[in-house]
């Protein structure tokens, strides 16, 4: 029967047909021996999505392949990275479901098009960043405010390839969340040291980012 409702499948098929102009690869790293319902449903969801448009492909890798895992710039497993010939490191640690599913779809469209829904002023300032920046946005899938933070972080990565941005589901990585003492979401951590809370507007997000790297 599938995980997507019939009307959602039709809508996504039409959106992908209109907007995907590039090949987009969903690179999914998982544990080979994980036969949990969570893992199987995640794989099924990705398979359904790539079946909606010829420009979408799915590649499944095992996290034990350390060399390739590290070459892709990944840190945690499971991970899904959206790849195309458009620059920008866009990644999800954990399944982009719940409220994050819409973010995931928008990111796929962005990587497969020239779409960039950011203001000119913000994009101009982002292009000036000339050092590596690692953005990790911690979320829960039932948080209605989290997608905005993830979305902006991912859009920043599209503007400047020095910026690497990832979503992390705190419920999939509880030890990491405890170690970092994360008690509220969305929480964005910049370069592993500076953090700020909330779904900020893009200009305020940029100001926090610039403050952190200074």
Q: How many beta-strand elements?
A: 8
- Quaternary structure of the protein: single chain
Distance between the amino and carboxyl termini = 51 Å
Any idea of the CATH class?
A: Alpha Beta
Q: How many separate domains make up the residues?
A: 1
Helical fraction equals 25-40%
What's the CATH topology label? Answer: Glutaredoxin
Question: Can you characterise this structure?
Answer:
- This protein is an alpha/beta fold.
- It has a single domain, classed as 3-Layer(aba) Sandwich (Glutaredoxin).
- 40% of the residues lie in helices and 21% in strands.
- It contains 8 helices and 8 strands.
- It has an 8-stranded mixed sheet.
- Strand 1, helix 2 and strand 2 form a beta-alpha-beta unit.
- The longest helix is centred in the N-terminal third of the chain and has 14 residues.
- The chain starts with 5 loop residues before the first helix and ends with a helix.
- The mean pLDDT is 94.
Key phrases:
214 residues, alpha/beta, Glutaredoxin, 8 helices, 8 strands, 21% strand, globular
Quick recap of the structure?
With 214 residues, the protein is α/β, with parallel strands linked by helices.
């Amino acid at each position: 029967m599938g995980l997507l409702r019939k009307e959602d499948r039709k809508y996504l098929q039409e959106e992908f047909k209109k907007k995907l102009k590039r090949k987009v690869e969903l690179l999914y790293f998982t544990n080979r021996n994980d036969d949990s319902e969570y893992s199987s449903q995640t794989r099924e969801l990705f398979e359904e999505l790539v079946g909606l448009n010829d420009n979408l492909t799915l590649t499944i890798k095992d996290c034990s392949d350390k060399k390739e895992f590290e070459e892709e710039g990944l840190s945690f497993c499971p991970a899904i990275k959206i790849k195309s010939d458009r620059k920008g490191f866009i990644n999800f640690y954990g399944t982009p479901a719940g409220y994050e599913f819409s973010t995931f779809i928008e990111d796929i469209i962005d990587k497969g098009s020239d779409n960039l829904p950011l203001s000119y002023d913000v994009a101009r300032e982002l292009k000036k960043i000339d050092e590596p920046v690692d953005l990790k946005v911690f979320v829960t899938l039932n948080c209605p405010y989290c997608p905005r933070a993830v979305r902006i972080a991912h859009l920043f990565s599209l503007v400047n390839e020095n910026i690497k941005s990832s979503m992390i589901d705190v419920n999939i990585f509880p030890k990491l969340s405890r170690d970092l003492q994360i008690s509220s979401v969305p929480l964005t951590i910049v370069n592993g040291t500076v953090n700020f809370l909330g779904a900020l507007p893009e200009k305020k997000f940029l100001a926090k980012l610039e403050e952190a790297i200074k």
